Amino acid sequence: MQRRHRLRRSADFESLRRSGQQFRLPLAILIVRANGDRFSRFGFLVSKRLGNAAERNRVKRRLREVIRPQIGLIQPGWDILIIARNAMTKAEYSEVDDAMSQLLRRADLLQALDS
What we know:
The protein has helices spanning 10-19, 53-67, 93-106, and strands at residues 21-24, 28-34, 41-45, 78-84. With 115 residues, it is of the alpha+beta class. It has a 4-stranded mixed sheet with strand order 1-2-4-3, sandwiched between helices.
């Protein structure tokens, strides 16, 4: 994921958690807020309660890989935080992909495709 598409500062994570709009599913929580930029930025949060470092990194890699092909479809100008929940560690890739698509649609972040 390109550097400009990443949330990196802890202050950005904290302000997004405080003032963003939340959408929940059993696998993940999506928190969004407009950022006023020409591109959207993403952050991924995986708690230590989900497992050891290897398990947490696997969950983060899977989330990044699910989001990466959808970046072009997501409306620009949003900060997006994805928080993994316990069920994420046992979920298949297709389940994670479906959950992220559903959360993005629910948040109305996907651009309409011109047919």
